[in-house]
Structure formats: structure tokens, C-alpha cells
Design a protein that fits this description.
By secondary structure, this protein is mainly alpha-helical. Helices cover 75% and strands 3% of the residues. The chain has a two-stranded antiparallel sheet. The radius of gyration is 25 Å and the shape is elongated. It starts with a strand and ends in a 6-residue tail after the last helix. 28% of the residues are buried. Belongs to the CCC1 family. It catalyses: Fe(2+)(in) = Fe(2+)(out). It comes from Linum trigynum.
Length: 214
């Protein structure tokens, strides 16, 4: 596009740069946000469940730590396997497209090949993001409960800390992904509340039934 000045000379108009494609963030953003939320909610729910029947702070902390380690490993491995499967599918499709075009994979020009490879998912990146994010989320209830001996105060502080973290994680995910902030934050918050409440109530009911497991 061009414009004319007072001297009737054609002047080029600078085009606005393309807007950032937020869909490109989907891979690592999904892994990070889901990992953080899962770490936060699952660890807090485990600690709430144990807290429903055991008021000992040591039991809650050990449960939370075990949940952190097991969950982070599970998330990282699961994400690696999932993304690697996606990687294999995309590579196979690229090869089929090249063969249909009458060009062997080895004959693809370097520049085109590099561009195609940049668009492929990265299993290691997704696994690391998922495992690290899970650990960060799981640390919130652990730190909130670690230094409080009074049972009721400990439960209250942990619930408040987890609720705040849920709102923050939901807000971060919405901002980075250009999604509705309030709706996203409330969805994450309510989901966390439901998970913790159900775990606490069901564990309490099982303990109250005095079932003989031996």
C-alpha cells in the first residue's frame, strides 16, 4: 500500500507487523498450566484428605511430599509419551507429503526442512514444563502447612493459600492465552474447591464408618 505526499510522490506505507500468534504458545502453555493446577489441586486434596482423619502435621507433609514426587514424575512421563506420539504422527505426515510431491525426504532444501522442524512438538520441553509446573503448584500447600502446628489454623491457611494460587494460575493462563480472565479464574478456583471438598468429605466418611480393612 502507498500514499502520495504534497509533491505527488508515492510514499510507501509501512505495514503493521503481524500480530503474535498465541496459538504457538499452546504446547508449552497447556503443559505448564495443567501441570501447575494438577500439582496444586492434587497435592492439596491429598493433604486435606489425610487432614480429615489425622491432625498430625507430619502425616500431612509426608503425604503432600509423596504426592509431589509421584505426580511430577507421572505428569512428565505422560506428557513426554503423549507429545512424542504427536511428533511421530507429524513426521510421518511430512514424509507422506514429500513423497506425494515426488521429492525424497533427503532432497528437501535446508531452509524448508528447518522451518518444518521448527513447527514440530518438542517432547522434552513439554515433559520438563509439565513436571516443573506440577512441582511448583504442589509446593504451595506444602509450604502453607509446614510451619503451623494448630490443626484448624493449618487447614484454614492451606485452604486460603491454595485458593489464592488457583486464582493466580488461572489468571496467568488466561492472560498468556488471551482468554477471558474472570471466567478462566473462576473455573479453576471452583474446580479446586470441589476437588478438595470431595476428598476431605469422602475420606472423613470412610474413616467414620470404622471399616475393618484387615
Amino acid at each position: 500500500m502507498a500514499t502520495t505526499n504534497n509533491n505527488n510522490q508515492i510514499q510507501p506505507v509501512k505495514m503493521e507487523p503481524d500480530r503474535f500468534d498465541y496459538a504457538k504458545r499452546a504446547q508449552w502453555l497447556r503443559a505448564a498450566v495443567l501441570g501447575a493446577n494438577d500439582g496444586l489441586v492434587s497435592t492439596a486434596s491429598l493433604m486435606m484428605g489425610v487432614g480429615a482423619v489425622r491432625q498430625d502435621v507430619k502425616a500431612m507433609i509426608l503425604t503432600g511430599f509423596a504426592g509431589l514426587v509421584a505426580g511430577a514424575c507421572s505428569m512428565a512421563i505422560g506428557e513426554f509419551v503423549s507429545v512424542y506420539s504427536q511428533y511421530d504422527i507429524q513426521v510421518a505426515q511430512m514424509r507422506r507429503d514429500q513423497e506425494r510431491g515426488g521429492q525424497a525426504p533427503a532432497e528437501v532444501e535446508g531452509g524448508d526442512k528447518d522451518e518444518e522442524e521448527e513447527g514440530l512438538p518438542n517432547p522434552m520441553q513439554a515433559a520438563a514444563a509439565s513436571g516443573l509446573a506440577f512441582s511448583v503448584g504442589a509446593m504451595v500447600p506444602l509450604l502453607a502447612a509446614s510451619f503451623i502446628k494448630a490443626y484448624k489454623v493449618r487447614i484454614g491457611v492451606m485452604f486460603a493459600a491454595v485458593s489464592l494460587a488457583l486464582v493466580v494460575f488461572g489468571w496467568i493462563g488466561a492472560v498468556l492465552g488471551r482468554a477471558p480472565v474472570v471466567k478462566s479464574g473462576m473455573r479453576v478456583l471452583v474446580g479446586g474447591w470441589v476437588a478438595m471438598a470431595l476428598t476431605f468429605a469422602l475420606t472423613k466418611s470412610v474413616d467414620s464408618s470404622r471399616m475393618d480393612w484387615v
